[in-house]
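To: structure subgroup
Subject: Chain for Friday's discussion

All,

I'm putting the inputs and outputs inline so they're searchable in the archive.
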Amino acid sequence: MLTVNKLIARGQGLAPVLLKRAASVELDWDVRQKSRFDATDSQGRHLGVFLPRGTAVRGGDVLVAEDGSLVRVIAAPQAVLEVCACAKHGSPFDLLRAAYHLGNRHVQLELQPERLLLEPDHVLADMLRQMHLIVSETHSAFEPEAGAYAAEGHAHHDHGHAHSHAAPARGKPIGIAVAAAPAPHVHGPGCKH
């Protein structure tokens, strides 16, 4: 067994020729969300992957084996539910509502402009259909959102362009009076509530 304990996110910094020559391994989300797993690569080598706890492997990532060899990760197609807005009776806002309700249930969810993808669940499928959304079963690579607290979330780093975190200006500006907050109420022995 060949031990793997390093991951290069999206193969960043590696020469394209190295990636082209590398072995590959095709893994579904159930495996890729684990930090420890066994797999067999395209060269027939048995891999024992031991990454830091909490590490999720994404399609496009590159695993580095103990002998220095590289293994490209491919997100395997798997059974998923595809959720789309109904063009006749709904609007794209319906997808936003669905994403909200699924997020409230901590459902792993892949967001795309015209559809949502999630792992099969008949209870959630029924809920989404009751929201007048079109739900169908399909096979697709599944790359759910990492979440705000994940290591691969949006960090403040230099990637060639700036971000403005100010709200965009809309319409005519208005003036709002702002006053200092009153002193906090302190509870003591004479407090009657």
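Points worth raising on Friday:
The longest strand covers residues 78-85.
Residues 152-159, 165-170, 178-188 have pLDDT under 50 and may be disordered.

D.
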